[in-house]
């Protein structure tokens, strides 16, 4: 009864995350040190922080062909005031397109923590807005245009997420995930994904540094948006602009 009551009041995602912060706190301290060291090291190798209206962070690990396709879908956006930073989780980078808007870096060692990889990309860039794309997913050309249209409207939210077209490994469509934002509902259902999320750069825009194995819930995507929405208004754009691969071989999640 107490567990059922707590879930009804707070939502299971919130309760699980509270437990994670207690049990996994030591991993977050160590990973924050690694993240800080990588940002210092990689910043020294960049002539200037990549800067534009929006910066897209692509985390990658050992998917060269998929990465090239993801990078191309990011570079092909109709929004041109845009930089793309690829952050490799210590495996080495393949050859990528020669484009002045593209920057690629490798961590000195593998962390296996998607949130830390993405945080490095956020911290290496300077932009008003930040977007996220994983190396096995693709954007439609108007993804950023639609997101920024909402973010810069008269009644502007601070963060938006579009609908996901979920695709199976054989290329067939599984479904379209399009759920209006409700923070109470987000504490109970996993309908959020950062591949569709574009948000204003604020102090809240960083991923959890807890070491989340595949068994640890909630995923860092859901935790980020739920936490971000505590102080910032988030809105859903009900148009599918992301081709999300439901990938059983994912390094981070099979959702």
From TrEMBL:
Q: Provide an example Pfam family for this protein.
A: Glycos_transf_2
- Every copy of the Glycosyltransferase 2-like domain together lies at 57-158
Q: Which GO terms describe its molecular function?
A: glycosyltransferase activity
Keywords on this record?
Answer: Glycosyltransferase, Transferase
Superkingdom assignment: Bacteria
Instruction: Write down the Gene3D superfamilies for this protein, in alphabetical order.
Output: Spore Coat Polysaccharide Biosynthesis Protein SpsA, Chain A
Its family remark reads:
Belongs to the glycosyltransferase 2 family.
Name-wise, this protein is: Glycosyltransferase family 2 protein
Organism name:
Streptomyces aquilus
Source lineage:
Bacteria, Bacillati, Actinomycetota, Actinomycetes, Kitasatosporales
């Amino acid at each position: 009864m107490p567990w059922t009551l707590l879930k009804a009041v707070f939502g299971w995602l919130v309760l699980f995350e509270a437990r994670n912060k207690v049990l996994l706190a030591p991993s977050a301290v160590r990973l924050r040190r690694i993240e800080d060291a990588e940002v210092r090291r990689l910043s020294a190798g960049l002539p200037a922080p990549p800067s534009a209206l929006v910066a897209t962070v692509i985390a990658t690990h050992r998917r060269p062909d998929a990465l090239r396709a993801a990078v191309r879908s990011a570079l092909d956006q109709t929004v041109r005031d845009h930089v793309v930073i690829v952050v490799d989780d210590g495996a080495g980078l393949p050859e990528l397109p020669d484009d002045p808007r593209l920057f690629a870096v490798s961590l000195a060692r593998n962390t296996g923590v998607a949130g830390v990889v993405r945080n490095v990309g956020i911290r290496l860039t300077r932009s008003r807005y930040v977007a996220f794309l994983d190396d096995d997913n693709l954007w439609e050309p108007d993804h950023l245009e639609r997101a920024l249209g909402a973010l810069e409207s008269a009644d502007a939210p601070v963060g938006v997420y579009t609908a996901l077209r979920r695709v199976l490994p054989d290329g067939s469509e599984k479904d379209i995930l399009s759920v209006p934002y409700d923070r109470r509902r987000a504490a109970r259902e996993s309908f959020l994904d950062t591949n569709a999320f574009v948000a204003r750069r604020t102090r809240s825009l960083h991923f959890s540094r807890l070491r989340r194995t595949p068994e640890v819930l909630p995923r860092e995507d859901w935790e980020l948006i739920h936490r971000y929405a505590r102080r910032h208004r988030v809105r859903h754009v009900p148009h599918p602009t992301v081709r999300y691969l439901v990938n059983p071989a994912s390094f981070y999640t099979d959702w």
